[in-house]
Write a structure and sequence with these properties.
The structure is a single chain. By secondary structure, the protein is α+β, with helices and mostly antiparallel strands. It has 2 domains: about 70 residues, TTHA1013/TTHA0281-like (2-Layer Sandwich), CATH 3.30.2390; about 50 residues, no CATH class. About 40% of the residues lie in helices and about 20% in strands. It contains 5 helices and 4 strands; from the N terminus they run E-E-E-H-E-H-H-H-H. Strands 3-2-1-4 form a 4-stranded mixed sheet. A hairpin with a 2-residue loop joins strand 1 and strand 2. Helix 3 packs across helix 4.
Length: about 140
């Protein structure tokens, strides 16, 4: 018996608000799920439950969501700065700020939500983080 479900990659935006991470999937069918959790894993589990509930009830005829098998979902994540530094707390804000050419105190304010970066500042941080990621990928751990 052939399944009607498809494997789908969903873009999910992760934001931090009041100490909680919130997810958002936009522009997919008639449903815009907004799951939440203490970490990305909890957001994803909550998202799967929201999808199951939606399809079971009001979304039975939604052309996009009724084809989704929550067990076959892949995700592409986009994080706001607060959520990014919460989920990637192994990154040192001071080092990232210096690498980006920004004041570490200011970046701490961005990460805590006290202030919000301009597009230019956010791009500097994004470029610095991308460069750090490239550097990490180019190095290996030597074990004797």
């Amino acid at each position: 018996m052939k399944s009607n479900s498809i494997s789908t990659k969903l873009d999910i935006i992760i934001e931090k608000h009041d100490g909680v991470l919130w997810g958002r999937v936009e522009n997919r069918g008639s449903f815009t799920p907004t799951p939440y959790g203490n970490n990305t894993w909890e957001v994803i589990e909550n998202l799967k439950e929201l999808i199951r509930d939606y399809v079971k009830h009001e979304g039975r005829n939604d052309k996009f969501w009724k084809k989704i098998d929550v067990n076959k979902l892949d995700f592409e994540f986009s994080y706001d700065l607060q959520a990014y530094f919460q989920e990637h707390d192994y990154l040192n804000i001071t080092s990232v700020a210096k690498f980006a050419g920004l004041n570490p105190g200011l970046v701490r304010q961005y990460a805590s939500g006290v202030k919000y970066p301009s597009n230019e500042q956010a791009n500097k941080l994004r470029n610095a983080i991308n460069k750090i990621a490239q550097d990490l990928l180019e190095h290996s751990i030597y074990v004797a």
